[in-house]
Every structure is written in C-alpha cells, then in structure tokens.
Design a protein that fits this description.
about 25% helix; alpha+beta; about 25% strand; single chain; seven-stranded antiparallel sheet
Length: about 120
Amino acid sequence: MWRGAEAERAAACLERVSDPWKRQLRYRFYPGPNSNTYGDAMLRACKLHASLPSTSVGKDWRGAFGANVTTEGTGVQVETPILGFRIGFFEGVEVHVLGLAIGVDLWPPAIIVPLGPGRIGFADR
C-alpha cells in the first residue's frame, strides 16, 4: 500500500504515463493486451512493487516475447503467448500456459491456481 509522498509520486506517474499507453493499446480480451495488461504496465512504468492476482488473464502479456524484472521487483519473468514463467523471492515459482498461472508462492506460502480464488494457502500479500 502506498501512502504520503510515495502515493503522490505514484499518482503523478500514473497520470503522466496512462494516456499515452492507452492510446497505443490494441485491446484484445484474450490473451492480451487487455485491462490486466494495462495494470501490469502501469505498475512497471511507475516502478510500483505489487502483483496482480493470478486469475488476471493478460497480466503477463508481453507480445511475441518479453523478459523483465517482476512487478514485485525480486525476480525475473519470461513470456511468450503460449508459455512463460516467473521466479522470485516474493513471487515464488509460476508457470504460465496460455495466459493461465500455476505455481507456488514462497511468502506467504500458497499454491497458485488459475481459477477460483487464485491462491490456496495463506492470505495474499
């Protein structure tokens, strides 16, 4: 959660980068880019460390190929439209198949599933 000066910086950044990104977006519900891709792109553009729920199809859309630091900032992520993965201290280990995430979160411990609650285990971060 962001408060004070960090929240003001985040709001200013989101205001600055949001419209240009939306103008270039070619929205597709599945596999992306979509509204979940937008959320992930805004987190990355404004260097805000958070994760979208595992049930957010399209959050991992990177086009034909993409590799990045994770949005939590403690791991790496590699994606194609068919397969991808994410591994990191907070992110745990996730495999993405056709935009659906399956894996294990390390902290707090949980199993990541692509449907329903998205997490089976301790509460989300």
